[in-house]
Amino acid sequence: MQLFFQNGGNDCYIVRLIGSGGQLASIILKNEDKRDVLEFTAKESGIQGNELALQIDYDTPFPEDTFNLHIYQIANDDKIVSSEEFLNCSMKIDSPRYTPSLVTQNSDLVKCTTTITDNDYESIASYSESRLPIPNVGSPVGGRPAWINNLGNLIKDNGNKTTSKFQISIDDSKFFEIDLKNAIDPSIIDENGVTNKLNNILDTTIQPPYSGKVEVIVKDGPKDGPSQSKILRFKSKGTSKVKSIIIKPGSSNDVTKTLMLGTDNGGIERSSYGFFRPAPNGISFKITDIDDLAGIPQNTLQNITIDSNPIDFGKKTTDFW
Question: Does the first or last residue of the chain, that is N or C, have fewer Cβ atoms within 10 Å of its Cβ?
């Protein structure tokens, strides 16, 4: 260095060179099924790379398909030195918010790659599911279960008003309007009759090449719902790499609010690419355990265990990677 200036040098820039043995901090995030989905690698090695932390949440307009990514550089004194956020991230390959491309091109801190292949996408089904349990209570009519009569009443509002229309998109198709006004008739006496009638309505309304790519399945309702209740699930039968079922209100006589169909009405819509999102990494628990948690006095909570690692509430803990 001294010889450089003694021989007429003026400006000298000193940079760190990383040889073949240089290590870049990295982490692989898993989805909710514990499957590897995304790998994040620090763009700098050394201290900066080791000070990075990631946070995932599902607080988005489409919480079944997209997610938010927060990246933090946290110093030893627990102060945030810098941060980045990427909202409404997607695992849909042709989306402008496709996570590996979005993060790698725009982040100053990390680059991102995925371990998911085209075959992985093709193996996952998609669906749009109603969140209204159809109760199986009341007197049977014509020898058929009460829930079928209740479904007919929901669609036709006891025959006084028809609320039977919704719009559906299959695998990114245009929206087709479906009318369920004839979904229930006296000849239907069992679950197979309901699904056959509903699927026939879909098949005669949805145009090629999307006809035959969605089916209605009648599922058992939640265990804590009305006795032996049922719910409707619209499931993709397509074989494309990216599968999705999206339901929105009908142009008139809308039934989506009545049946709680579509994300705007509390319904659940899961695409094939939504399955491969990283799991949220905050503290969480099963909704079925909420009563047990609520029954524990606050002053008795001393520690929790996450993935077999106990965390003492009396000690300050910071997670880095």
Answer: N
pLDDT reading at 237 higher than 80: yes
Whether the Cβ atoms of residue 131 and residue 230 lie closer than 8 Å to each other: no
Task: Give the residue carrying structure tokens 């956020």.
Answer: 85
Contacts of 75 (CB under 8 A, 6+ apart): 51, 81
Residue 187: predicted pLDDT: 85
**How far is residue 115's CA from residue 123's CA, in Å, rounded to a whole number?**
15
Residue whose C-alpha is closest to residue 190's, from 154, 149, 162:
149
Pairing type for strands 52-57 and 67-74 reads: antiparallel
Q: What is the pLDDT of residue 309?
A: 61
Count of other CB atoms within 10 angstroms of residue 317: 8
Q: Produce one character per residue of 138-153: b if its CB has 16 or more CB atoms within 10 Å, e if not.
A: eeeeeebbbbbbbbbe
Give me the residue label for tokens 């998609």: 126
Give yes or no for a contact between 148 and 188, defined as CB atoms under 8 angstroms apart: yes
pLDDT at res. 317:
41
What would the two tokens of residue 54 be? 């990631």
Q: How many CA atoms lie within 13 A of 235 on its CB side?
A: 12
* Residue-range domains of the chain with CATH: 22-116 (2.60.40), 127-276 (no CATH)
- What is the C-alpha to C-alpha distance for residues 220 and 134, in angstroms, rounded to an integer? 9
User: Which candidate, 110, 109, 108, places its Cα nearest to that of 100?
Assistant: 110
Cis peptide before 209 (omega within 30 of 0): yes
Token code pair at residue 307: 């993935």
Does pTM top 0.85 for this prediction? Answer: no
Type of residue found at 253: N
Sign of the CA dihedral with 258 first, then 260, 263, and 266 last: positive
